[in-house]
Structure formats: structure tokens, C-alpha cells
Amino acid sequence: SRFYTHGSRVPPSLSRRVLLPTVSGIWDALTGGAYAREAVAAVRRGMLLFRQGNVPGSLVEFDKAISLDPRQRAYLWQRGLSLYYLDRFREGAEQFRFDVAKNPNDTEESIWCFLCEAQLNGVDEARTQFLEVGIDPRPVMREAYNMFKYGGDPEQLVKSFTSRSESEYFYASLYAGLYYESEGKVDEAKSHILASCKSSYGSRSDDYMASLAGVHCRCRGWSLD
Predict the structure, then answer these.
(1) What digits encode the pLDDT tens for the residues 107-135?
(2) How far is residue 105's CA from residue 98's CA, in Å, rounded to a whole number?
(3) Most exposed among 72, 107, 146, 177, judged by the fewest C-beta atoms under 10 Å?
């Protein structure tokens, strides 16, 4: 999916997860009539509900968007994230695979597909069907992609970006934690995802993934205090 930012608060080279739906989705809404416009409105509601921690409610809205305008499914990476946190991993993997098939440069969707399939089949089998995507312009996501695809050291990922920008540290910490979660290492996952959530970027950014870090902690019962 292609995402764009609003204002100057979120550098477009570092964040693709903002409150607005995709450019393609909005274009479909402009050219598809009332149902398509209602579908985009449903996506907006779903994203807001997810940010507020209402993951089941967000999925209801995302599914409503697809029922109103089936073209939306190709862009609904948000739906895949909601499915992951509802433990509906098979459906989540299907959503991410559908998204990458339509948009073959989506690094994060490839990783999230792996995360879903690792919960279903284990990391070794999930890695054998890892989705190939184009090169991400963000150094932190290139490193994260290679770590998930080939195996690697999450601690080294975080170390490499600790002294870089706030957003890079956030993403390194988030994906280090998610890597540990895929391996069933709860304590390590908790440490890094809490760090991402409490980071300057994680606590202040409009980035959808900053909201996701908080949702992750709430879903796992981890206190942010």
C-alpha cells in the first residue's frame, strides 16, 4: 500500500502509517460513488477505533469497508494488524499476502505476514514462505526485513539505531520486540515493545504504528506506568 503524510510532523521517508487511508483508496472513493466513499469513511473509523484500543470494533469497520467496496481489500493493511491482535492469524496472513500481491514493495506487510504465519506454523516454516518485496528506502526497515527473512539478532538491530533518529529507534525497538514474540520470548518482547512505546516518537507521533505499540502492550496486559 502507498501511504502519505499530512503536515510536517511525520517524515514520509520514515513513516508510512498515518491516520489517513491510502492514496489509492481515496482515489477509488472519488471514482466509485457513494458506496466507495462510505467505505473510506469506514476505514477511517476503523483506524480511530484501533488507536483507541478497540481492536474488535476496528475489524468490524474494516470488514464493512470491504463489503461496501471490495477494492478496498487490496489496501487494508490495517485490517491485517487488527486480525493479528485478535489471534486470527490465518486471516491476517491472507490479508497481508493479498496486499503484497497488489503492492509488491510493502516491507512491513511482508514482515507482518511472517508474524502471523510464525504463530500458526513456527518461525522456521514461516521463513520458508517469506514474501519477497522491493527495497525499502528506510534503513531501519531494510535491516528489520533482513532480520526476519534470514534470522538475526534483535539486540544488534536496536543497537544500530539507538543513536539515530527518534523514529528509527522506535521502529528498531518495535520490530525487535515483534521478532522476539515470534520466537515465544515474552520477556524480551515486552522489554523492547515497552521501550518503543515509551520512546519520544512512540509517545508523541501520529504514526499508526506508534499507536500499534500501545495497543500491543494493552493486548498483552503490559503496564506502561
Answers:
(1) 999 999 999 999 999 999 999 999 999 99
(2) 13
(3) 146
Cell numbers linked to 87 = 489471534
Look at residues 83, 145, 142, 107 and name the one whose alpha carbon lies nearest to residue 17: 107
Burial class from Cβ neighbours inside 10 Å (0-12, 13-18, 19+) for residue 31 reads exposed
| Residue where the block lists cell 500458526 | 120
Task: Select from 85, 140, 112, 120 the least CA-distant residue to 1.
Answer: 112
> Which residue matches cell numbers 491516520?
19
What's the DSSP call for residue 131? P
Instruction: Transcribe 42-94 into DSSP letters.
Output: HHHHHHHHHHTT-HHHHHHHHHHHHHH-GGGGGG-HHHHHHHHHTT-HHHHHH
Q: From 153, 167, 158, select the one nearest 202 (Cα to Cα).
A: 167
Residues 44, 35: Cα–Cα separation, whole Å = 14
- Taking alpha carbons only, the member of 207, 187, 206 closest to residue 195 is 187
Distances 156 to 45, 60, 63, 141, 149 between C-alpha atoms, Å: 37, 38, 38, 14, 15
Helical H runs in the chain? 23-31, 33-51, 55-68, 77-85, 89-102, 107-121, 123-128, 139-150, 154-161, 166-182, 186-198, 200-204, 208-220
pTM of the model: 0.87
